[in-house]
Amino acid sequence: MKQKIFAIFLILCGLCLNLKAETQGDVVGRVLDDSGTPLIGATVQLMHAKGGVTTDEDGYFRIPYSKEGAVRVKVSYVGFQTQTFILRTDDKKHGEQHVLRLQPDATALDQVVVTATRTPKALKDAPVVTRLITANDIKIADATNIQDLLTEQMPGLEFGYAMNQETSLNMNGFGGNAVLFLVDGERLAGETMDNVDYSRLNLDNVGRIEIVKGAASALYGANAVAGVVNVISRENSEPWTANVNTRYNDFNKECRHGGSFSFNAGKWNSQTSLQRTTSDEVQLTSPFDTESNILHIYGGETFNVKERLTYKLSDKVKLIGRGGYFARISNRSNYDDHYKDYSAGLKAVMNLSQNDNLEISYGFDQYDKARYVNDERTHDHDYTNRQNTVRALYSHIFGKNTLTAGADFLNDYLTTYQFTDNTSHTQNSYDAFAQFDYNPLEWLNIVASLRHDYFSASSQNATTGRLALMTKWKGFSIRANYAGGFRAPTLKEMYMSFDMAGMQMIYGNPDLEPEKSNNFNLALEHTGRIKSAGFLTGQYSLTLMGYYNKSDKRIPTEDYEDYQPGEGQPDVASRYCNEDGVKVSGIDFSAQYRSDMGLGVKLDYSYLHVGGRSVDSQFSQPRPHSATWRIDYDRQLCSFYRINAALSGRYLSSPDTNIEKHDSSYQLWKFTLQQRFLDAVNLNFNIDNLFNYKPKAYYWSSAMTTGRTISVGLSIDIDRLVKVF
């Protein structure tokens, strides 16, 4: 009997030990990117241990481990930052595995971009120089809008003010009408002082921003003379996500509230985001200041809602629907300006075969402006721009090569108070293009593109081409690129007849010819890794690019010498014209470094020279030298706490201009602190204009600051918070 009892006791002890081992014996988890997509083949390794495991097709991993308590693991994946996580082997609440999220690494260059060639291509393999701003870059910058983000990330690009405090852009010597802004590859309707309404570009739920500097008309047609900025939405693959966020800035008492929600169920995937912002007027200088162009900044409010709905019809066909509504009110002393936009679209993505893909899409965008006095619409400042777009894009892969062909139809309708008697004009444009992506050798890539456009209003034709070459050798990449650019005269530039507040008349010119340009650039890039350097072990990239752009038939305004004022009209007038021989050249340098332990350093410098211009814009003045920099520390300090601290800055030299009123050189610094708790709660704090810079006078391109400002923000990922508890 005693022997039986002893045997049973030994069995029970063994079972207990076995159960304890199963409880404490493995480190189990899942590796995802920040959008929730599983990372297949990611390497997961216990710190100070040899070897490691890789994640399966669903991102799961299991590491045998017999000890109880905390364990530090290192996770690495191509195109993402190598990160360390502190996990507890006894922390298995409700049977949940550890979820580890990796952040993209812009220095790795293995991320896929689409803007350079209109087909997916690894950033390191794109023959056209492309700047990528990831979702993580947006978080680190802690930018509140597209203007803050781009100016912080890119030297040679500057936002300022134009008349009526509309935003004006200068990019490498070109104005906003020469830079094509896209949202998920679609154009934006409407313009304010030759620029799109940048406040429409909500950064919530943005997955990445791709920027191609230099002419890209061979693929994108008109307006892509100086470059393309493509804002691409995030795609979530988790069952559901929900986020709420809020932010306050003491500069203009700006309050921003927003949220997003997505679900992924069966064949359906939905992403919804909304944001509302209010701000007060800011008095910049004395009302009696006769030197400044701008005395105060108007207050107002914006509301932005977007929906993106995807339905997987079959394994080969996917339908993507989108819709959006935008409203903005700019509060003036005697009136309010109201801006509204309605957008919608439907795209069918068809995988005809393993090597053949076809996209067919329709897009609608309508942008309206109206003036209100005492809450009543005046109808004397009405503006409506409506665009209907139909597009087809086909690609065929054979071997390592890709043939792409496409066609677009755009119906452009415009009615505005700047036309005589608020009349309307319509223009239809047609285009067809083809591109051949040729890869004869592992180290050689050649891309050739050709496009033809026709514009009905001006009866103008334009044929543009691109030839790009890329070669690789021992960690170095050389890119050489020629691209033609053009910009057709807009309906406003052809038909305007506008009395500008009694100061002067501005007339259009129906005889305008399209702007044409020839762009050449050469870029050298080197990527590598610093090994066995302890805390400094990490990855770096260096890029040096030189460019030259000769623009003919550029469309500015000039004094209208044959002007005969009518009754009640101003005595002076200007008229749109063509200007030849404007030459833009420059050098861009970029250096990036990210250590495995979370230290990041980034430096960008741009030199710009604009020659041959006969007309200087008072709103958009080129600056010969500009630079941006950032140093940050991003680290998961424990299982529930992550910190990112960044110090960034920006330098702008004095403008190269003949206009008397312009600002001198200046620099601005910014400190940002972001803390993330439980992988779900973000608490943001930043100090902008850290060293309290104040301009002596406020001109159109001056820094609109009254000194040091502070902002705080809170963001909560509800879905992740639910998983914690």
Structure notes:
- This protein has 725 residues and is mainly beta.
- The protein has 2 domains: 101 residues, Carboxypeptidase-like, regulatory domain (Immunoglobulin-like, Sandwich); 566 residues, Beta Barrel (Maltoporin, Chain A), CATH 2.40.170.20.
- It is 7% helix and 55% strand.
- The protein is built from 6 helices and 46 strands.
- The strands form 8 sheets. The protein has a 22-stranded antiparallel barrel.
- The longest helix has 23 residues.
- The protein is globular and about 95 Å long.
- About 4% of the residues have low confidence.
The largest β sheet comes out as: 22 strands, antiparallel, barrel
Structural class: mainly beta
Overall number of strands: 46
Give the fraction of residues assigned to helices: under 10%
First-to-last CA distance: 49 Å
> Which consecutive residue ranges, at least 5 long each, have pLDDT under 50?
4-24, 91-96
Looking at CATH, the homologous superfamily of the largest domain is: TonB-dependent receptor, beta-barrel domain
State mean pLDDT (0 to 100 scale). 88
What Rg is obtained from the alpha carbons, in whole angstroms?
Answer: 28 Å
Structural shape: globular
Classify the beta-strand content into a percent band.
over 45%
| Structural domain tally | 2
Secondary structure tally, helices: 6
Give the CATH topology of the largest domain.
Maltoporin, Chain A
CATH class of the largest domain: Mainly Beta
Corresponding CATH architecture of the largest domain: Beta Barrel
